Amino acid sequence: MWNKNKQHTPVKSTDSLIGHGGTLEGKVTCDTNLRIEGNFSGEIHCRGTVTVGEQGTVRSTIKAQDIIIAGKVYGDVVADQRLMMTGTGQLHGNILAGTLSIMEGSVLNGTVAMAEEPATEKAGGLQKNGHTDKAGKRGSKQAETA
Q1: pLDDT value, residue 2
Q2: Distant-in-sequence, close-in-space partners of 15: CB < 8 Å, separation ≥ 6
Q3: Distance between CA atoms of 46 and 54, rounded to whole angstroms?
Q4: Which residues of 129-144 are buried (b: 16+ CB within 10 A; e: fewer)?
Q5: Fewer CB within a 10 Å sphere, N or C end of the chain?
């Protein structure tokens, strides 16, 4: 009666688009990529890539994995991985990004903060390379005999 052996195929996610000429206000939260070619005002949280196209204007805070700005953005942006500004991109706001790429011709009015990567070695730490300091040996021998 019921086909229990039927396999469920996972639903593939699709990208979201705010097209040229479209205007949207509010809060957008998405797990997929988002492309904005129209106008958006509000707040954006995205686990994928947010792309503001050349015709796009965004008045919003943007938090995403990757952000590509080819249009105009008025607001602060946080890119967990990478922020790229093309030659036509304009950003009037602050940046927090893992890596930053700004092409010639783009406009940036704001502050930039880079996410810190963990240090591989502690600064000023001792390195063990098999060589010892002779003065250090003399000092320790003198301390032993005293």
Answers
A1: 53
A2: 32, 33, 34, 35, 48
A3: 20
A4: eeeeeeeeeeeeeeee
A5: N
Bridge partners (DSSP) of residue 101 are: 84
109's tokens: 């009015």
Would the pTM count as exceeding 0.85? no
Other beta carbons less than 10 A from residue 79's beta carbon: 24
Count of CB atoms within 10 A of residue 96's CB?
A: 17
Amino acid at 117: E
The answer to whether 74 and 56 are in contact (CB under 8 A) is no
> What are φ and ψ of residue 79, in 5° steps?
-110, 115
* Residues 6 or more apart in contact with residue 35 via CB below 8 angstroms: 15, 16, 17, 18, 50, 51, 53
Q: Tell which residue, 70, 43, 47, 46, has the closest CA to residue 59.
A: 43
Average pLDDT, rounded, for the chain: 80
Q: Distance (Å, rounded) from C-alpha 60 to C-alpha 48? A: 17
Shortest CA distance to 45 belongs to which of 21, 77, 69, 70? 77
Give Cβ neighbours of residue 2 (< 8 Å, ≥ 6 apart). Answer: none
Radius of gyration (Cα) for the chain, nearest Å? 26
Q: What is the pLDDT of residue 10?
A: 53
